[in-house]
Amino acid sequence: MGTVTEASFDSHFHQDDRNGSENQHLAQLVNSISELSLPRLDFNQLLHEQLEKAKELKSRILAPPTFGERFLNLIEGPWAPAARDLPDRRDLAVSRQELTPFRKPCRDKLDVSARIAVKQQVAASEHRWPLTRWSSVYEYDVPIQKLPRDLHGFTVLHLSDIHFLKGCERPCEELAQVAKFLETGRRKVDLILLSGDVITRSPEDLNKEALRQLHRMSDVCPQSFMVYGNHDYHGHMPAIISKKLEEVGFHDINNHHIKLKIGQASLNLIGVDDAYFGDPTPPTVLDKDGINIVLTHNLDAIRGNFPADVDLILSGHTHWGEVKIFDGSSLMRIWGYCDNINSHTKQWDVLSDRTLSFVHPGLARYYVPFRGLRHPPGVAIHSLYAASPITEL
Ligand SMILES: [Fe+2]
Ligand SMILES: [Fe+2]
User: Fold this and answer.
1) More confident residue, 137 or 364
2) How far is the CA of 167 from the centre of ligand 1 (A)?
3) Which of 118, 228, 322, 370 has its CB 3.0 to 4.6 Å from that of 232, i.e. a possible disulfide?
């Protein structure tokens, strides 16, 4: 039937060029359309509805946890709103503007107050929305000095501390939500960076389902890279982790660097090995004209030993302050999951006149989550913007 209809449709229009019956047919068509009572679109009303929706969404996201939620948090884990459909980023544009009241350019020489201002500025741009019941997506606007024009708005999806674990479904479920979000195309992501602790105990933790979810993500964004975390050395076979991840599109840049060409601009991506079990090599190959991003698992691997030209250091490991209540033989001994819990649990820090540092919350809940009621685990999205006038190339 479809073929017949299609053929008659074609012949109809070819023949009507000659006898003028096409005009008659079109006139009939126009008459029949004009008789339809189509509703008129009220764009003011639509705009109003969108604004109301965005405000409502914002109030839900920013609403403090109720007493009941705080109580549940004590017994179940960090508070997070119930899972709901992922919000469309466009709906959040209004609340985002209100949350980012100013964008102060960095100066070449930052004094202490200016550093605090930059830190507060990037922290104030945080926009958090629920990924699942237990995790969130943290979005930040990240000021980069002398950012080339082609990198303005460049977006990095930062994953860390996934801690796949044999027999545990949750990490795969969390990643499935991230992959689903990427596949919707609601948020353009240019680069995916994974800063270690992919597994928990052994390479077997990285099962087929885990790899499938990672593959979904690298299918959407082929520029996906990883470095090792301390847990990836469990089983003494980080190369196996690396090989498996390579097969699903996550490239190993452990103690390597790779230069990405984005339009006319270049982005130098430097991977540094884990501080505990790896052999961290400070980055030496830096791009003077582009921007330099360092990816490492533990900030200890590079803290205090990084070149001045580094723009951004992305790390993880601390899970934003998870704590072991007992450690080996010492029952009830509280042990922070990092050497310096005070400095390493800071989400954002300004390490030099040029260098910003971000410590990731991690996607896993591993020990007791003293990360605060408002800071559940999750993933981070960093959007780069020029802190000084955009460099003309
Ligand atoms: Fe971890
Ligand atoms: Fe770690």
Assistant:
1) 137
2) 18
3) 228
